[in-house]
Protein: NADH-quinone oxidoreductase subunit J
Organism: Ahrensia marina
Amino acid sequence: MLTGLGAAFFYLFAFVAIASAVMVISARNPVHSVLYLILTFFNAAALFILTGAEFLGMILLVVYIGAVAVLFLFVVMMLDVDFASMKRGALDYAPIGAMVGIVLASELLIVLGAQFIGVGQPGSVASPTPDPLTRTNTAALGDIIYTDYIFFFQIAGMVLLVAMIGAIVLTLRPTRPGVKRQNMGKQVARKVEDSIDVVDVETGKGL
């Protein structure tokens, strides 16, 4: 349980995270939405660190802020998407969004009220909690990921690789006018005679 100053920081980070998450979906400029998303990730990482899950906090900073959010920002800036026309039809999906929000809120209330309705702890734990005096949770998670779940870890890496390649393919437009692209074959076949002109300038008649 967080008490005193720790609880105050927890509520502060939680409030900023919720406010920035609301701004993500309400900002008119898509670039501003991505920047608010980065702010949300920062505060969520701070919440993880406050609760003792420093590995999840660092992963959230490195993966989501350092890669996913930056990727979103570049895709938004490089793709010529008419976001104004997309937001004009946002009200059509309001009933579905409200239904999903109600379901998520109900699940959160069930989780928060579990201690009052008699939900006990699970009978068995798959992996024991490490001793904080000898090992950190980061070391324990590393042992589990790279031994018991190495196959799923590799699959997740391949999914991220495919997403990165897909973003590059979407932003690559070889026929875009006014853009100069590198021609590797032409550069390799280039000769000195085609690149340099040797001019014999007489003395006193230079530039």
About this structure: The radius of gyration is 27 Å. The chain is about 65% helix and 0% strand.
